[in-house]
Structures are given as C-alpha cells and as structure tokens.
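#lab-general

N.A. 3:47 PM
ok so I finally got the sequence cleaned up, no stray characters, all 237 residues accounted for. can someone with queue access submit it? mine expired

B.Y. 3:52 PM
send it over

N.A. 3:53 PM
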Amino acid sequence: MKSLIVLACLIACCDACAQAPIPPRFSAAQPGAVPSAWQTVLLSSNKQPTEYTLVADEGVVVLRASAKGSASILAWRTDFDPRAFPMLSWRWKVTKSIAGADTRARRSEDSPARVMISFSGNPASLKAGDRAAGALAEAISGHALPYAVLMYIWGAKVPPESTTVSALTSRIRMIAVSSDDEGAGRWQSYRRNLADDYRRVFGEEPGRVTAIELMTDTDNTGAVAETFYGDLTLAAP
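B.Y. 4:20 PM
back already:
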C-alpha cells in the first residue's frame, strides 16, 4: 500500500517536477539566419513572406522582422501543459505603428508585432462556421488551423488590454498588450499568464500548447513595418 501511495504522488507531481520548456533563444545565436528550430510558415502562395533575420541591437542578438506588404509566421513547435508553465515573458520593439491598420476590420487587420500561442482541443466541438473557416484556411495555406489561438498583439485603433475576436474565426482571440503609437521606438517587456488569459477570452479550460509563433504582417494595408523581438521564456506560476 505504501508503495502505491508513493507512486500516485509521483504521477500527480510529474508536471510540477518537469522543467519549463525553453523556446530557442535568439540571443544565443550569431547575427544572420534564424535558427532552424524556428520554422517559417507561409500563409498562402500568393502572399509575400515577411523577412526574419537575426541582428545585434544594443549588444544583444535579437530577431528583426521586416514586412513590406507581406505576411508569414515564424513558429516554434512544442507540447506542454499551460497550467504547469503558464508564465510567458518576452520583449519587442516596434519601430512605428502601421498607418491604416485597424484590429477590428478584416481588410486592414495588420499588426507590427504578434506573439501567438496555439492550443490543442477537440475539433468536433467547434461550431460549423469555425470548422468551415479552418477548412478554407487549410486549403489556402496547406496548414490546418489550431483548435484555438491566443494572440498578444500590437493593436490598432483598440485600447490596450482589449480583446478582439478575429473576423476569420472565433477560435482566434487577440489581446492588445500595446496599441497605436504607445511605446513605439523603444523596447517593451511583457509577462502574461497563458492559462488565465485563455480562460478569460475563451471561457473554457486550455488544452496543451502546441506552438509559439511570431508574426509581423502588412499584407492587408501594403505598409512597411519593422519590429525587433527578444528572447521568450516560460515559467511555472
């Protein structure tokens, strides 16, 4: 009996004993090409990809994203329980906001900076409209949409801390951690609780995190944008 109790305790504590996942650090690399652990994801064959490169800024190697009427994602694939490691920290520097962008409008929903978290779940539970949107997105891009995506974005014409539901699908929710020209031109640091934010915007418990992605996009407005991303870290509460 004693051994069974010990085994049960070990199983219950396995997540707590595990180490936090470590997104590949830009600061550990040399300026130039992005480490292969970060994969480029094209949104469609008709869209120009955003250019992602590593550069030195203030003595630290960071990611530089340069968009010119373009959009593509830089993704790190992973698999962890956001309730065990919910604390996501990162920093970015947006050179300037995007003129003409509007987070609320599908035709002008561009952002100079996004940190996007993909979650697993049961696709059969989705509404018909969300399943149709997912099928369309997969047909265009060749990649299936995640069950849910929580985005932290640099918003446009929306207040900080506001949540916007994507016009494409209700399974994408965008939290504006900054907006318009607030803080533009200097490094901004953030720390968010993924599990709490997911519960708040989706009204349900989160599934496992399957990817962390970065995106700077100007494909709707045709504008030019430049953003710098620093390292991302995950931690227990």
